[in-house]
Amino acid sequence: MNRREAIESAVRILAPRIPRHEFEAVTDHALSSRGLHTASPETAAWLSLTAYIRHRLTEYDNLLEEGYDPESARFFVLDDMNAVLEEWGSPRRVVEED
User: Fold this and answer.
1) Of 51, 62, 36, nearest to 84 (Cα)?
2) Dihedral angle computed from the Cα positions of residues 93, 89, 39 and 4, in that order, rounded to the nearest 10 degrees
3) Using CA atoms in the order 89, 73, 28, 32, what is the torsion angle rounded to 10 degrees?
4) 0.90 cut: is pTM over it?
């Protein structure tokens, strides 16, 4: 199994009901991110999945633009992120320490 297949498999486990276009975006990000290059496929998939949700499906970036620090902005979008994970059938949730 090559790295793409391993990451795709991990994303399917982490979010079995993720829409196809978002599945592709999460997988592509996990593969192209220099910071995730040496991470295990499971870790790369989780970090890419949560980053995608945070930046694309919540008000996180708007909160940063309004002057909130990253930690506060993450706190305020935590419930929204977990709602998306639940909708996508994920067995995991984001916790404050993530």
Assistant:
1) 51
2) -170
3) -140
4) yes
